[in-house]
Amino acid sequence: MTNPIGKEGGTVNVLASAYQDTNGNFQPIIVIGGHVTKNRFFANVTIPGDLPFGPFKLSGNKIDGHLPPLWDMNYDANAIEIVNNDEVPIYQIIYKRPDVIEIYGIFLAGNKIMAVTRRGTEGMPAFVSGRPTRVDPAALGLKRIFKYPSSAYLEQRVLRNE
Questions:
Q1: DSSP 78
Q2: Residue pLDDT, tens place only, 145-159
């Protein structure tokens, strides 16, 4: 499915889920949304974070809140990536072409955790028996794009033979 977006200011819901409210109506939950600025799409997502730090929001390449300690983010003009303390990718957005963007990661949407991989999407409750659901980021199957720590390797990509 293709959704044309304007060059400036438009908002887009790229992936959504739904829940049934107490009246039996289905209500949308945005998993991946975004906005367009200067002909460039920027994703707006909520990432579960790590215990006990909780979720944080990412809008484009700006974090609202804080990354959990030892997590890191690196980016260049064609990709943004967040890795956990083991340098396993939690989130990636890859600008293949102006009209082709790939987004992968673990996202919080309402009371659900959504894992978006190259194989598709999987949703699960955010809490089971009152405890937060933990998703193994290695199960996403994502290869790191960048070298870390970003403080030493900002915008430097991993060479595929490394």
A1: T
A2: 999 999 999 999 998
Domain containing 107: what range?
A: 11-153
Q: At 79, which amino acid appears? A: A
Burial class (CB in 10 A: 0-12, 13-18, 19+), 87: middle
38 phi-psi bin (left φ>0, alpha ψ -120 to 50, beta other): left
Give per-residue pLDDT as tens, 19-55: 666 787 777 777 888 888 877 888 999 998 877 788 8
Q: List C-alpha distances in Å: 12 to 1, 15, 78, 90.
A: 13, 9, 20, 22
CA 7 from chain centre, in angstroms, equals 22
Looking at the whole model, is its pTM more than 0.85? Answer: no
User: How many domains in the chain?
Assistant: 1
